[in-house]
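tl;dr need the bound structure. longer version: we got a ligand (pyridoxal-5'-phosphate) that a collaborator sent over and nobodys looked at where it sits. i said id run it. heres the input, straight from their email, havent touched it
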Amino acid sequence: MRDSQTNPAWDVLLDLSGPGPRHERLTRALRAVIRDGTLGESATLPPSRALAVDLGFSRWVVTQAYEQLIAEGYLAARTGSSTVVRWSAAGAGPAKPDRPMNAQAGIDLAPGLPDLRHFPRERWADAVREVLANAPHGEFGYPIPGGHPRLRAVLADYLRRCRGAVVDDVRIAFGVTDAFGRVCRALHSAGITRVAAEEPGWLKLREVATRAGLDVVGVPVDQDGLRVDEIPSGVRAVLVTPAHQFPTGTVLSPARRAGLLGWARDVDGLIIEDDYDAEFRYDRRPVGTVQGMDPARVALLGSVSKTLSPALGLGWYAVPPQWTDLVEPTPSPPALDQLAFATFLERGAYARHLRAARRRYRARRDALVTALGPLPLSGVAAGLHLVLDLREDAEAAAVVRRAAARGLRVSDLDDYRATPSGPGLVLGYGNLADGSVGTAARLLREAIGEEASRT
Ligand SMILES: Cc1ncc(COP(=O)(O)O)c(C=O)c1O
């Protein structure tokens, strides 16, 4: 195919059917049209924003697919901004990169993961061994709906002590995403059809709400967190990340917390608190949950995805009593995993792990902030990621592509916005090897180019 930028029929050209999330289906479809020669070598792909509009996908979906195919060698990010095919069917196989990938290729600075190298394997294995050795036969039956009572009790205790939550009845889910889906379906069954969500925010949860039949309304965030006054009238549910706004990293200010609770009482609404990485606050103690301030108005969601590993697929939710019966209690994660986590908590291994992880992340954050020198960073006080603002005239997507071409994965701030705004990057350091901090910073500087940073 010739210059594909002008091709108006991407939705026809690409076969997006099949299993998997959208970005995987798009990756597969693009790979297929490159491999069968429909998109010839040097064909130009549309800008991610344009293709996203054509396909009715979020821009994140398209940038993920482009990045994947750049990493595989099917596409290349050209200096400037366009993405081109660099694989030819005649050449039988992805072409050699036009310059060698950096020796440290494969550095991932996209947010999302905790430190996988430091998963507490031994202590987790001890907990599993203890469960296997001591659990009565009855525990090997089907998981109990709502979660194992032992985990529910010990987790409630943890949330009361460490997160300032007011909870008696904690239920177990597969993670925040799963718990949020259950709450959304409960909202829908109660006749609530709209949910407000922070803009920017984690778009995956918006997709979950949409799948549950809810309309999602974006509400802006500023340096004090969610602009409560901007929640449109008629909306009675809101998803927030009060302890550490994702991705900007702000904390919901005390005045906004009070305002949010006042809003919920006024509209007889539900606040859905995504407490996803609150344990990691470096410069002072973690802020407690909003749920603890008014448990009748707040559903609290959390998981071990940031504290231990998303591979465990363990999360929880505590909803106000009037919502309990509406939220589905099944399916439940494997009972033995629940018991292992209960044991892990009871033995103090979770608290020990969090203390060590906090120290490690703080040191890594300090090293990264130092290595990035005077670049304008924000959201550095907590969590596992920070935000780098780019100059107004910079194109973040081009920086992301240039970084990918150097073997460095970073995320465009626009990937977390329904409506694109000022250019910026989200840099996750949770799973960054300590030895790679300097290289990551150097590659990022190269990708940004001196002219694009806001210093
Ligand atoms: C804002 C936000 N909430 C929640 C989660 C965790 O979701 P889950 O528990 O489904 O893995 C993440 C993970 O990246 C996140 O970014």
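gonna send this back to them w/ a short note. Residues 72 and 94 are 7 Å apart (CA to CA).
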